[in-house]
Amino acid sequence: MKKIYVFAAALLAAASVAAQEPREVQMTLHNASSGGDVIPREIYGQFAEHLGRCIYGGIWVGEDSEIPNERGYRVDVLEALRALKVPVLRWPGGCFADEYHWMDGIGPREKRPKMINTHWGGTVEDNSFGTHEFLNFCELLGCEPYVNGNVGSGSVEELSKWIEYMTSDADSPMANLRRENGRDKPWKVKYIGVGNESWGCGGNMYPEYYSDLYRRYATYCREYPGNRLYKIACGANGADYNWTEVLMKRAGGMMNGLSLHYYTVYDWGRKGSATQFGDEDWYAAVGRCAQIGNIIKGHCDIMDRYDPARRIGLIVDEWGTWWDEEPGTVRGHLYQQNTLRDAMVAAVTLNIFHKYVYRVKMANIAQMVNVLQSMILTREDEMVLTPTYYVFQMYVPHQGAEALPLHFETESVRDRYNEKVDLLSATASRAEDGTITLSMANVDLEKPCKVTVALDDDRRYAVTGRLLTAVNINDHNTFENPDCVKPVDFDGFDAAKGSITVTVPAKSIVSLTLK
Ligand code: AHR
Predict the structure, then answer these.
(1) Ligand 1, atom 7, residue with closest C-alpha
(2) Pocket of ligand 1 contains residue 95 by CB under 6 Å
(3) 318 is catalytic
(4) Of 59, 147, 257, 461, whose CB neighbour count within 10 A is largest?
(5) What's the pLDDT tens digit per position in 231-268?
(6) What is the pLDDT of residues 328-384, one digit of tens each?
(7) Domain 41-400 carries which CATH code?
(8) Dihedral of CA 40/257/319/295: which sign?
(9) Whole-angstrom Cα distance, residue 37 to residue 401?
């Protein structure tokens, strides 16, 4: 296996000599086979927390706003999200979930009590976006709701009643309260999270204590006729394998899913600018993001020991990049810009998720609008789609498709943390109608990557392509220049019987459609 291990600086020096010489990669796409794992649509899930301008201003402006809205939801954002076919949306947090008391967010809006959002800038939350507003938004978007319950400062009774309120059709106190508030029929709510980051902002618990609490809370998460629950226990922070071990051992039998949080961050004390960074930072970001593969594998191996039938899903319900907040924005609101580097992190991460779909059943990027690695940025009535948005858009065909085995060897470099960074990341899937999507991310900043793809069904396909790249690694879309980083049609390939040769430009993401 040909591998090159050098530090990024050395690589860049060498690369500048032979700038345009492509790397060559031989790839085999096993498209004749079938019966592989399906890529759950839920891997393309989103997360929207009461944090900064994610909900307020980003999604919800209220019916009286001058910003064009449908029943209070921004029309531009709604339309942009519909194009991503968002399968599931997690709400209301995050850390906020463990301070949220759902009864404060129902009934006439003007009567709803206010609270202080202590985690996120001390902003006063007026609770005008609550259960009805969230679940109706999911209906408008056509996605499954994922409601995260409060374990840290809530009660078993509170969570139990919330589920009754949302999903019961009986002549019962909570269902009747819902009716009084204008919703006759219950919603369907499948995904229920029992606490968030219970090892941290959600209560600073030990796994033994949380497991017992989980068992208790989960017992009273009742299933009302017509509504099946998928109960998700709070899982580990990154590589905390002990958390998974304890949870699986003590509560595995009572959960459907176990979560995992992993952010791409250099150092929690020095996150770095979202837009001002250099080549070394680029490789280090991809290196950090790619570590999620090893971490997922570590948790999967533990889960396999306790759950060999793979009944329990690993739910990566928070992931993405975390940079410094944009200068001049409100502290604690986590508003960050989004460059080609974020797009690369998204593509590499999604490719990794596809490898583990035997266990990873959902993932929720943090977050949907105006917070961390968001799809969308808004300013008053303006909206910008981020490079990350476009990766999600290019990857829509992978949703619900069958993952196809892909074999190739790639060169790699060592980043400044001595992490191995593969220079090519790729994934392939086949949709029900037989269409194959092959997505490739060339991490290399200098060299194109010439990939010769052998197709084992020996067919000649009609191929089309899309390309996402930019002139500079820190290019991004702004309100003044919203189309700086955007996918374009791509024809840098030759399709023959049984093979395709494609040259993936440096620092780019290419998706080929084979029909
Ligand atoms: O996504 C921002 C925060 O990151 C979430 O509230 C919390 O769960 C995590 O620490």
Answers:
(1) 94
(2) yes
(3) yes
(4) 59
(5) 999 999 999 999 999 999 999 999 999 999 999 999 99
(6) 999 999 999 999 999 999 999 999 999 999 999 999 999 999 999 999 999 999 999
(7) 3.20.20.80
(8) negative
(9) 9
